[in-house]
Design goal:
This protein is an alpha+beta fold and about 150 residues long. Helix content is about 20%, strand content about 35%.
């Protein structure tokens, strides 16, 4: 299920994360490997997340996916070889929720892209998914909430 689209003017949000390159067939494996490393690096640097982790898609082609796995933070913290400070973009952004299993996210993104085109908008930069529900604490995937953000112009 998808909630109605809202258009919001967002402020940039400071983040701490890692940018990874993968082929499309293997990118899903990055989440299980790198999100635990993100939390460990965040803890070791003394950082406190301001919300759930997110995946931001910088590039998506048939050959390559460039994805940033990160968490929002209140203040800059020490970077490491893998994990760097960054920020989400500010500005006009479509915001909505996907409720359900992650397997439905591809269709949710496709539906949103269609809506963007039909309503005269263009994509401004890479969108992101914030994982509100932790599957380790909520096993019922029909209750999983993913917030989706797509900057537009």
């Amino acid at each position: 299920m998808t909630t109605p689209y809202e258009i919001k003017d967002l402020a940039p949000q400071l983040t701490f994360g890692v940018t990874l390159h993968s082929d499309k067939a293997k990118f899903m494996t990055l989440f299980d490997v790198w999100f635990p490393k993100l939390w460990q690096a965040l803890t070791e640097a003394g950082g406190q997340p301001l919300g759930g982790p997110f995946a931001r898609y910088h590039k998506w082609t048939d050959e390559e996916v460039v994805i940033e796995l990160a968490a929002p933070v209140a203040a800059a913290i020490a970077e490491s070889a893998d994990f760097k400070m960054g920020s989400t973009p500010g500005g006009k952004t479509i915001v909505f929720q996907h409720i359900g299993h992650y397997s439905g996210l591809m269709q949710t993104w496709a539906d949103m892209m269609e809506w963007v085109a039909k309503n005269g908008y263009e994509l401004a930069s890479g969108g992101w998914e914030t994982y509100v529900t932790d599957p380790r604490t909520e096993p019922d995937s029909t209750k999983w909430v993913t917030e989706i953000y797509q900057p537009i112009k």
